[in-house]
Amino acid sequence: MDSNSSYAKDDKLRRIMDAALTTFSRSGYQGATMQEVASEAGVGKGTIYLYFCSKEELLETVLLDVLKRYRDQIVQIISSEDASRTRMRRLVSEVVRGADRRRRQFRFLLQGSWGMGGEFKQRALSIKKDIMNSLAEFVSEGAEMGEFRDVDARLMAHIISGTLDSLAAAQLWNDEQTLEGQDDSWADDLAGAVVDCLCSGVEPEQ
Amino acid sequence: MDSNSSYAKDDKLRRIMDAALTTFSRSGYQGATMQEVASEAGVGKGTIYLYFCSKEELLETVLLDVLKRYRDQIVQIISSEDASRTRMRRLVSEVVRGADRRRRQFRFLLQGSWGMGGEFKQRALSIKKDIMNSLAEFVSEGAEMGEFRDVDARLMAHIISGTLDSLAAAQLWNDEQTLEGQDDSWADDLAGAVVDCLCSGVEPEQ
Amino acid sequence: MDSNSSYAKDDKLRRIMDAALTTFSRSGYQGATMQEVASEAGVGKGTIYLYFCSKEELLETVLLDVLKRYRDQIVQIISSEDASRTRMRRLVSEVVRGADRRRRQFRFLLQGSWGMGGEFKQRALSIKKDIMNSLAEFVSEGAEMGEFRDVDARLMAHIISGTLDSLAAAQLWNDEQTLEGQDDSWADDLAGAVVDCLCSGVEPEQ
Amino acid sequence: MDSNSSYAKDDKLRRIMDAALTTFSRSGYQGATMQEVASEAGVGKGTIYLYFCSKEELLETVLLDVLKRYRDQIVQIISSEDASRTRMRRLVSEVVRGADRRRRQFRFLLQGSWGMGGEFKQRALSIKKDIMNSLAEFVSEGAEMGEFRDVDARLMAHIISGTLDSLAAAQLWNDEQTLEGQDDSWADDLAGAVVDCLCSGVEPEQ
DNA sequence: GATGAATGAGCCTTCATTCAT
DNA sequence: TATGAATGAAGGCTCATTCAT
Fold first, then answer.
1. Is C1-52 CATH 1.10.10.60?
2. A28, A202, B65, D117 — which has fewest CB within 10 A?
3. Would you call B164 an interface residue with chain A, using a CB distance cutoff of 8 Å?
4. CA A72 → CA A65, A67, B120, D22, distances in Å?
């Protein structure tokens, strides 16, 4: 019984955050109404205010939550013991696959934290920097291990991050020209080609 | 007199669109009020409705306008007769410089068209595809001329576009770690390093 | 035309304040809704916010306005050149008559400024003190002229003010036992009896 | 056990009514929330509804309770066997002292029953009339005993009642000009002066 | 054309009340 | 009996839009 009610409470919070993610993603922050979120979550409008003190706090919490999960996914992938190129490949394929599976979340990430203010922006930026730092470190370590050239790690992090975002966005925007064959291996094939570009560059070796 | 009033009319339209860009960029679409836009433009609130039938149409017009200008800038740069690497370099340096100079516009571009619907989204996507197509064509042509390897042009377009976006965003977010030395040549140096990564890749030649 | 529109604006403000007085008096501050006030005034809900920035400011303005008019009435009456007793008599009869005529306003005055905070309370208190000071001065002057005994003027002011309030309240509460015969002279007769009590006291002369 | 739980129940009821008095007095009827009252009483929000079926009933009960206690105090004082003037003096001094000691209650009384409707208003009025009747009777009896002149008893009741209210209000409003020396005997001195005014009147004997 | 006073639909938020535990 | 999580009606306020001037 105890564990039941405890479960129920967590469940309600989770349902609200999930509904908020869905609703904000569908209608945008300002466009979404608390009533929509409540209906989507299957709770009363007032119930949301038992967990979040304002619409803004709800958005911030959900946004940070998604951002953190994205960061954790990236960090986890590039922390493996595989060869740098392999890790990079997994990074691309997982993110692209994830964008497909969790469209709602990526909508959110790409939208970013526009219009949010002050303290929140700092926290969001902090997580974004985590991501950048992880990627930069990944590049540096690759160079130390002799698997990468000695390029500017921070710039390379921008290139990787930007590529991931662009691919995910294409996914969301349904860029069927780029990503049409959705069989089992399309993400891996895509990742292979992208990583080839990133690793070998676009210029022919002389 | 005719040409005068016509000029006056164009001028007023231009001031309104400029004010809208500034205001939407500062406060977001929903956060901005028509009163704000009117004040910023130095016209009466009702005047805006002589040129645009709704707030949404105003946003769409301004957004498409900015997108087009961005597209045109990119197209113009990569249409020159220079070597591919040189054009790519100019692409990066101009975009980064532009992000610095025209922050309002880039805010807008990165924010995208959230919450906008249907027909408008198609038009925005269409322009975004113009950009992608231009970049892909640029890569293809480079390959034909032997200046680029025979990589997947569309994927390389994503890499370039994503890199540009990531750099521009860092600019806006004031990522002072990446872009601190703001002397005259910082953009060129940055572009050089970025293009080196993109052209030669991150892996050492064997 | 100019004077017309100017009149219209003043008229709208006046209608809103009047409607607010009526509505607040009928339903209480918290009980009244802005929609009620708007309907009573025959304007749109938003229009009120062109003249007052919040419900609270509306209440404060109306309350201070009524308070000031009450103060001015009292000051005017006791500033005449008549004998002290005559002025006191007019004070009572006018206030009682006013309570009858302007019930809404007296409701307001008696309710006072409960729940209002800070700066406003100070301004209301300041006007209430004006009234007390005027009454005290009236008593002092009466004493100087030999028409009154040398009693504590401030205490006597409390007695007069309290008596006026109690009579006005009885009026409002429909104390038909006290104030039933509402012919032309009832107020004068009442005032005569009251002033007799206040002037000669309740104890028999020894 | 029975008497214990019965005691506990009475105790809880008392605590709730006390908390309501404090809370309503502090925040006003509409401003106070049931949660505030519950917290102040140290009980759960739902518990209040075991004793009162609505917020309004709670207010009415508490208000009538306070009114009755005030009435009883007045009746008790003027029912003694002392000389009329002595009783009047005790009336003033006790009320003023009481206003100091039980500010919360007087706040309530002075605030009155604004916004309350129908049946309740009748009951409150009924108690207020009790007070008026008691005072009028007191004056009549004084006249019968030859200690008072034969004035209109109901009007004199208004004068006394109004004076008491005005003094109590000054107390609450912190009218330090009137009531500053708060040593042991200030209330008695004040009462002496007030009663002198009421008994002998403000006009010099001729 | 240009304006801004006026409007009212719509939304965030509060809080009295209920009811499962 | 006692509780407080859950609810949803209701209200203050905003702001896109209109229209008389």
1. yes
2. D117
3. yes
4. 11, 9, 35, 52
